[in-house]
Amino acid sequence: MTIDVSRSDVWVPLETRRSPKNHRKRIFFGVFVSACIIGLGYTFIRPPIYLGTASLVFSPPERVSTGVALQSAGHAQTQATIAVNEGDGVSDTQTIQFLMTELERLTSPSLMEAVAKRLSAANSDAPTVSRLQTMLQASRVPGTNIIDLHAEGHDAAALPVILNAWIQAYLDEWSASHRSASASALDQLRDRVKSLQQQVEAKRKEVDDFQNKYGLISADNDENEAPARIKSLTLALNDAKNAQVTAQSNVQSMRSSIAHGTPIILPEDKAALSSLESEAVKLREKIADKEYGFTPLYMAKDPELASLKSSLAGIESRIKQQRASSQDAALSQARQAETSAQQTVERLTRKLRDGRRAAMNFESRHERHKALLGELNDIQALYNAAQNRLVEMQASDSSHVPQVSLLDPPSVPDRPVYPEYMRDAGISMAVSVLLGLLAVWFAEFLMRPSAPLAQPVMPNIQIAAFPDYAAHGGPAAAPSGTALLPPAGVDNLPRELTGAEVTALLGAAASDSLLVLATVLSGLTLEDLASLKWDDIDIEGGVMHLPDGRVYTMQAPLRSLLARRGPGAPGTVLFADPDGKPLTVADLEGLIACAAYDAGIGAAADITARVLRHTYVAFLVRQGLRMGELSRLVGHVPPLLFTAYGRLAPPGAHVSLNRIDAILPALRQLSDPA
Q1: 117: which strand partners?
Q2: For labeling, which of 473, 559, 606, 619 is most exposed (least CB within 10 Å)?
Q3: Can you state the percent helix, strand and coil of the chain, rounding each to 5?
Q4: Residue closest to 506 by CA, chosen among 641, 395, 596
Q5: pLDDT at 433
Q6: Residue 236's closest CA among 364, 352, 120?
Q7: pLDDT score recorded for residue 218
Q8: pLDDT grade, residue 209 (50/70/90)?
Q9: For residue range 44-54, what is the model confidence (pLDDT) as tens digits?
Q10: Cα dihedral sign for 224, 230, 232, 235?
């Protein structure tokens, strides 16, 4: 079965048949020429503005010149030297401050009045003071001691005259204002030195009185009595604590030795105890000699041996007593040393605590003393600096002070600085072009119809498999060229794409966009596509299981595109981004918009999924498809639209789904290029 649906039989509004080319040209050139006349007229009607310049250089003492030659047009040379009373050499900060002062002097109203008087004396048409304030400007060249003078005006020849008058008036005012400046500055500096000297003497007396009142020797803590006493008490307390620890250790050691049976002997008792032990050893040796030569019975009766044993017993008793006495004495001495060390620690702790309270009072006085000394040193430094400056000013002369000289004399400018006619003319023409294009766009926007009107006619449908279809009750073919007026209600339908637009749209689409276009132009919705998974697609069987429960039979083009794309992994969606995240309905709309813009279709922003769906539904309805079977291909259709779509259907009895071509011709070309 082949169907020939010719779009030439579809009604097109009359205004869309007319070429807008001439109309756009008239609008563009009308706006362009008008804007050019206004812009170029404004550009070239403006008078030229010239800029005259001169430069003054202010030299520090080491770069002072002997004189300055000031020459103005038509005037004799004038020698002038301007001395600036700065005392000693000019530092960077001083130079900047001096230059800023001179900038204010150069633009002051009083100087402008002097310039106006000079000019009016030579020319009655001289500019007024207010005019001079707008014409004359002075600026400092950054990083230098140069001040540039600028004069703007329409008369190039008058600018050097005005600049020379400005410079001469400045020199006269400078000379008058600085004639007595040196003497005045010297008097002010002498007064400053005298005031600082009085402040130094008063502050020194305050420091001496404070030292005498609280007994402060110097700003160093160690040289004052209270800190020195705290320091000595701290050292003594540390020594006493060490002695206490030593005494306690001696007592513990003696007690431990006594507990283990180790005798403790005083050093002074060791000699006597050693003598007794020597006598005991001798007696033991004599008794041993006696016992070796005699029998025990004899020895018991020998009086000499008995005397020796009695003497030995007495000596041993004395040794025992001596050891006990020496041990008790040693332990007693150790206890006394421990007690003495503890008392010493307690006494020094009390003294240190009392001393610290006194030191706290001393510390506050000492800080006050240091603050007074700091104030005295600051005032003394100011006094010394002022004294040195006074000496230098008294020894200096006018040749050591900064001077100002004319670096660049005024000259007649050869070309205007404003306006730039060629640049402004180019800008005017560019703006005119933009205004012309904007006018064309705005006119197209205003004349664009609110919605494209498509006039339905009876399409020339020739069904090759049923050549006598009209004879069996089918719809009769409408004569070629028949056009009907647009029926009421069609205005509510969206835009319908032509066959050429659908072909361009499919040809410009990328792989993802092409699949979205093919599915929507086959009756599916974006909601179906957004939730469609590969598990719902049976490429081999040629069917899709849609979310609304429908089983959709795929035609050859859509089936071929899905076969080339998949099948995908189980559980994955049909459309996803590189990260595997499913594309939303808005993302799919974006793919349609991308293809529309790439295809270069007019009003591409209006091409949406709704437009594509309407194009496909209108294609089906124009073939005479029964409205009841429309949902088998495109899903649910709101009953409200049946009335509008019914006006697109041809007259006569309508046919079933198997009697029409359900594939758009442009879509069929994807699978059958021939």
Answers
A1: none
A2: 473
A3: 60, 10, 30
A4: 596
A5: 93
A6: 352
A7: 61
A8: confident
A9: 898 999 898 99
A10: negative
The helix/strand count (H/E) of the chain reads as 21, 10
Please name the helix (run of DSSP H) or strand (run of DSSP E) that holds residue 273, with its range, or none.
helix 270-293
Percent of the chain exceeding pLDDT 70 equals: 78
Quick one: CATH architecture of 470-671? Orthogonal Bundle (1.10)
Phi/psi class of residue 489: alpha, beta or left (left: φ > 0; alpha: ψ in -120 to 50)? left
> Which class does domain 223-400 fall in?
mainly alpha
| DSSP designation for 261 | T
> Do residues 60 and 145 lie in contact, with contact meaning Cβ atoms separated by under 8 Å?
yes
Q: Which two tokens stand for residue 210?
A: 């404070």
Of 348, 347, 342, 340, whose CA–CA distance to 232 is shortest? 348
Preceding amide of 419 cis, omega within 30? yes
Q: Give the pLDDT confidence score for residue 478 in this predicted structure.
A: 35
CB atoms < 10 A from the CB of 462, how many? 14
The domains of the chain are located at: 7-46+419-447, 223-400, 470-671
**What pLDDT is stored for residue 406 in this prediction?**
84
Q: What kind and span of H or E run contains 369?
A: helix 303-395
pLDDT band, very low/low/confident/very high, at 488 (cuts 50, 70, 90): very low
Instruction: Report CA torsion sign: 506, 510, 513, 518.
Output: positive
Q: How far apart are CA 327 and CA 332, in angstroms?
A: 9
Task: Report yes or no: 334 and 244 within 8 Å, Cβ to Cβ.
Answer: no
10: region left, alpha or beta (phi > 0 left; psi from -120 to 50 alpha): beta
Q: How many CB atoms lie within 10 A of CB 445?
A: 8
> Per-residue pLDDT tens for 60-102?
554 443 333 333 333 333 333 333 343 344 457 777 888 888 8
CB 57 within 8 A of CB 145: yes
As a whole number of angstroms, the distance between CA 569 and CA 530 comes to: 16
Sequence-distant (6+) residues with CB within 8 A of 497 are 505, 601, 607, 611, 612, 615
Can you give the pLDDT at residue 36? 92
- At 178, the pLDDT band (50, 70, 90 cuts) reads low
- Cross-strand bridge partners of residue 404: 58, 82
Matching fold, domains 223-400 and 470-671: no
Structure tokens at 261: 């049976």
Residues in the chain: 674
Buried-exposed string 37-50: b where 16+ CB fall within 10 A, e elsewhere: eebbeebeeeeeeb
Q: Are 250 and 334 in contact (CB under 8 A)?
A: yes
CA distances from 157 to 47, 50, 185, 394 (A): 15, 10, 43, 48
* Pair 54, 167: CB distance under 8 Å: yes
Tell me the two tokens of residue 199: 């402040």
Rounded to an integer, what distance in angstroms lies between the CA atom of residue 403 and that of residue 145? 11
Q: Is the Cα torsion angle 393, 394, 398, 399 positive or negative in sign?
A: negative
Chain centre distance of CA 617: 56
pLDDT at residue 627, as a whole number: 86
First to last CA, the chain: 17
Rounded Cα gap, residues 235 and 229, in angstroms = 10
Tokens standing for 97? Answer: 């401050």
Q: Which residue type occupies 291?
A: E
Q: Are 638 and 617 in contact (CB under 8 A)?
A: no
What is the rounded CA–CA span in Å between residue 218 and residue 370?
Answer: 9
d(CA 669, CA 674): 7
